[in-house]
Amino acid sequence: MSNSSTAAFDYDFRQAYQKVIRQVRDLGGMLRAQRELLGQRGLDVSREPLEGMNQLAESLDKLAVPLEKLRTELDQLRELARTTQVTGSTMALDQVLSDVIDTVISLTHAERGYIVLKNPQTGDLEFQIARNMEQTDLGEDELIVSRTIVTRVAESGQSVITTNAQEDPRFAGSMSIAGYSLRSILCVPLKRKGQVTGVIYADNRLHQGIFGTHEGQLVSAFANQAAIALENARLFDQLRASLREMTTIKEFMDNVFASIGSGVIATNLEDAVTALNRAASRILDLPELEEPIGKSLWAVLPPLYTGFEHLVEEVRAYNRQQLVEVEPVLERRGQINLNLKLSPFRDANHTTQGVAIVLDDLTQLKQQQAQLGLIRRYLTPAMLDNIQTIDSLELGGVEREISVIYCDVRGFTAFSESIPPERVMEIVNKYLSVSAEAIHQYEGIIDKYMGDAVVGLYNTQLNPHEDHTLRAVQTAQLMAAGVLQLHQTLPPEQRLSYGIGVHTGYAVLGNVGSPSRKEFTALGEALDMAKLLQENAESGEIIISAAAYERVKDRISADALPPRKLKDDLELTVMYRLRA
């Protein structure tokens, strides 16, 4: 029966009952009036009908009290059934707690109600909800209960009902009852499969005798259903929390999977793709509009190398990892370098369910290693360590201001004609070693050797320095000193001299050559001017340009000279000879 039908039935029953009482009383009044009238006329009428009618009216009046009590109990049972149904229909723990305690307060006319649950892990009693008769939550400062009664019910599993806790000898020593002036208290256990999972506590501080045996039985019956609903809601909350945690972990793993630089592809036993991250799509240059999941691995992958399909079968069949480097040619990327790691994809029982392929793109690394191989030819290991990134070197070509030192061994041609070839190479390498050591001392790079001549460069993208001109000049001075030291170990006929030119100017620097062989070099006026200055230098002289002199004139001593040799395409009006 619906709530509206029940209310209508109660109203009709109450109206009918009251109508019967009125009719009996009216009928009694009529009998009394008739008897008085007949008595005035001298007729003696028996009082039995009137007395019977009075007894009937009294009986009906007495019946009203138990009927009203039964009606109230019926209302409580209906409310209990309704709330049990509502409570069982929701899985939200907070809502179930509110419904349960609001129902207890409504059924018992309590002032306040509390639900205390045992922590499944620790067994400690924890307050879950506190409400009042207005169905609003109580604050922590309003958490006024008899912890003595709560603990007793939780430990014994037996309900406690007291009509006046202040005078109940069972709780004579309870400080909370005395301190909070608690009177009517009802506390029943919540049980699940015979185990106490918590308690329901209700009280009234103003009135005593509010709770009786009927209220205790009513709430106990309700508590059995409430315990099931609360346990289910708590398990549902735990399940929902676990699901949230699993979702968070999955989202995290998905983000990791999508963010890692290595490409990852997973397949099942039928070679269908079950996972493929963005890095794999990028490395293999896969079409963005196609969804690879569920497709055959061989329809997704571009051709990597002949025999790759057999390698996947071997990993799956023999449960062993394989490593291989391949250099496939992709339609848009061209030739690339890949490092492939193939591993069996196992489940929790270590049964192979497919293959996991990890792809590392080594293309850029291989290119950088090739470029570093070229750079090692020009830089010392210490200078090479200072390079932060190969991408910043602009080896494709850049124009910048540099300083150039051009050194040539004088008289070498005539000298080489008088001794055997192998002896010639031995001696020239000694002089070139002096030059190379001096260039490296001031962190220059050797551009090239040209017979008995050597060219050094400063402030290129490989060795940037603000004081590059001073470094070039100091290199020339160190070369001259090195030659003098070398002369002390050589016979007079092998004592040759240098002519050195130094210039500061602009040049284009970068790799030149064919795809199979490239060299780093400088092109432009700076090289030509340094060579011209070297040609102007007499034996043992260091000649620097006016541009170089302006940069270092505060650090050196030099004499201005007119040029001894000119070229049509180079402007040389004055040059400077360093003093010893």
Draw up the topology in text.
Layout: H1 3-40, H2 48-89, H3 93-108, E1 112-118, E2 125-132, H4 147-156, E3 160-162, H5 175-180, E4 184-192, E5 195-204, H6 213-259, E6 263-268, E7 273-276, H7 278-284, H8 297-300, H9 308-318, E8 322-326, E9 329-330, E10 334-335, E11 338-346, E12 352-361, H10 363-375, H11 381-385, E13 398-410, H12 412-416, H13 421-441, E14 445-450, E15 453-458, H14 468-487, E16 497-514, E17 517-523, H15 525-536, E18 542-545, H16 546-552, E19 558-561, E20 575-578
Parallel strand pairs: 16-18
Antiparallel strand pairs: 1-2, 1-5, 3-4, 4-5, 6-7, 6-12, 8-11, 9-10, 11-12, 13-15, 13-16, 14-15, 16-17, 18-20, 19-20
Helix pairs in contact: 1-2, 2-3, 2-6, 3-6, 13-14
Q: Could you list the spans in which at least 5 consecutive residues all have pLDDT below 50?
A: 386-392
The largest β sheet comes out as: 8 strands, mixed
Number of strands: 20
- Helix and strand content put the structural class at alpha+beta
Contiguous helical run count:
16
Quick one: overall form? elongated
Chain-averaged pLDDT: 79
Q: Which fold name is given in CATH as the topology of the largest domain? A: Alpha-Beta Plaits
Strand-residue proportion? 15-25%
For the record, what CATH class of the largest domain applies? Alpha Beta
Number of domains: 4
Give an account of the 3D structure:
By secondary structure, this protein is an alpha+beta fold. The chain has four domains: 3-75; 90-238, 2-Layer Sandwich (Beta-Lactamase), CATH 3.30.450; 270-361, Beta-Lactamase (2-Layer Sandwich); 388-578, Alpha-Beta Plaits (2-Layer Sandwich), CATH 3.30.70.1230. Helix content is 46%, strand content 24%. It is built from 16 helices and 20 strands. It has helices spanning 3-40, 48-89, 93-108, 147-156, 175-180, 213-259, 278-284, 297-300, 308-318, 363-375, 381-385, 412-416, 421-441, 468-487, 525-536, 546-552, and strands at 112-118, 125-132, 160-162, 184-192, 195-204, 263-268, 273-276, 322-326, 329-330, 334-335, 338-346, 352-361, 398-410, 445-450, 453-458, 497-514, 517-523, 542-545, 558-561, 575-578. The strands form four sheets. Strands 13, 14, 15, 16, 17, 18, 19 and 20 form an eight-stranded mixed sheet that branches. Helix 2 (48-89) packs antiparallel against helix 3 (93-108) and helix 3 (93-108) runs antiparallel to helix 6 (213-259). The longest helix has 47 residues, at 213-259. Residues 386-392 have low confidence and may be disordered.
